[in-house]
């Protein structure tokens, strides 16, 4: 079984080569800001990133004709259920011409298809657990303003992979348990999984601030700022210049902790507030299942921090045992998902635009 997994990020492309149950090659290929700025839209980067992937494959001796599947991180599709979707012409058209959300993962399906075209007739191109996975209950969609619904947009791929991993290692059945997963990274997403479905989440624009995103802000103080700046400027402020970065001048949590431990009292208060807000997010989403939670999992880059894990243990450990699963597990999640499809253990779903008309 040979699978290539592709995960496009804003300034990098992660690629891994999976053979018979194990990732044998993995690389994060960085792209400079200058390189990315040459392209007006995300999808315009396709040829640039495709050529980099083909160069990686050539260097590592990976023959595209031997691939059983190519799995790309799923992009900004309409709300879909979790699982695997074959990359088809309708999906590519939607990502290129229809979606209104600019996200680097939009390239995942397109790049997977490009690599598939280099392979054989049996090679499958697919995506798995795209960012638009939506298994919300109806009550979770209510926002507080008629006409605006809450959306299920977040780190679905990593969060579901971590939830299933924790359930398995803790002797639980993912399809018969309740888990909270807090993805802590450049953006924060906190989700709750019940009986195999991600039934609610707190997205990066409505919950705790992260290393570089603002999270939810007081609206009455935010609204005047919207008249002073363009939409593009506001989006950059929320996504790239907010959170810890706005207070500390860096989004590197390790450097911030060093300054806190060195005695920076002002920054310590900010960092305490960062952890405080994450704890509030975990606590609030626990109410979705009336406080019945089997495990709380912390994942993403910040979950490597012993300080963060210990402080969250103090604040929300009363809800359920906390398990730290640091880092991102998206490459193995893509590979394992593709493997299950190739082996016939999981359905390969079809994306059809008319289903969302």
TrEMBL record:
The keyword Cell membrane does not apply. It is found in: Cytoplasm. The keyword Iron-sulfur does not apply. Pfam families: Acetate_kinase. Its EC number is 2.7.2.7. GO terms for cellular component: cytoplasm. It catalyses: butanoate + ATP = butanoyl phosphate + ADP. Keywords: ATP-binding, Cytoplasm, Kinase, Nucleotide-binding, Transferase. Belongs to the acetokinase family. This is Probable butyrate kinase. The gene is buk.
């Amino acid at each position: 079984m040979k699978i290539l997994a592709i995960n496009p990020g804003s300034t990098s492309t992660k690629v891994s080569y999976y053979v018979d149950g194990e990732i044998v090659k993995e690389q994060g290929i960085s792209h400079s800001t200058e390189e990315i700025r040459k392209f007006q839209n995300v999808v315009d980067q396709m040829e640039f990133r495709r050529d980099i992937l083909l160069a990686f494959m050539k260097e590592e001796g990976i023959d595209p004709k031997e691939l059983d599947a190519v799995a790309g991180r799923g992009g900004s599709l309409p709300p879909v259920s979790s699982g695997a979707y074959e990359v088809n012409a309708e999906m590519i058209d939607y990502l290129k011409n229809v979606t209104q959300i600019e996200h680097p993962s939009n390239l995942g399906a397109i790049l997977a298809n490009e690599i598939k075209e280099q392979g054989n007739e049996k090679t499958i191109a697919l995506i798995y657990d795209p960012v638009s996975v939506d298994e919300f209950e109806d009550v979770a969609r209510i926002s507080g303003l008629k006409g605006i619904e809450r959306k299920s947009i977040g780190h679905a791929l990593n969060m579901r992979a971590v939830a299933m991993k924790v359930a398995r290692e803790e002797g639980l059945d993912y399809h018969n348990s309740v888990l909270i997963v807090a993805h802590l990274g450049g953006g924060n997403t906190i989700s709750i999984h019940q009986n195999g479905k991600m039934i609610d989440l707190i997205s990066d624009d409505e919950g705790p601030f992260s290393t570089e995103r603002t999270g939810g802000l007081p609206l009455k103080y935010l609204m005047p700022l919207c008249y002073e700046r363009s939409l593009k400027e506001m989006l950059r402020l929320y996504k790239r210049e907010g959170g810890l970065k706005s207070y500390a001048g860096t989004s590197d949590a390790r450097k911030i902790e060093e300054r806190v431990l060195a005695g920076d009292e002002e920054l310590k208060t900010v960092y305490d507030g960062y952890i405080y807000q994450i704890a509030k997010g975990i606590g609030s989403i626990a109410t979705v299942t009336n406080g019945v939670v089997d495990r709380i999992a912390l994942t993403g880059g910040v979950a490597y921090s012993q300080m963060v894990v210990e402080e969250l243990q103090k604040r929300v450990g009363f809800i359920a045992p906390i398990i730290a699963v640091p880092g991102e597990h998206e490459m193995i999640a893509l590979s394992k998902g593709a493997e299950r499809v190739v082996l016939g253990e999981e359905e390969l779903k079809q994306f059809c635009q008319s289903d969302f008309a």
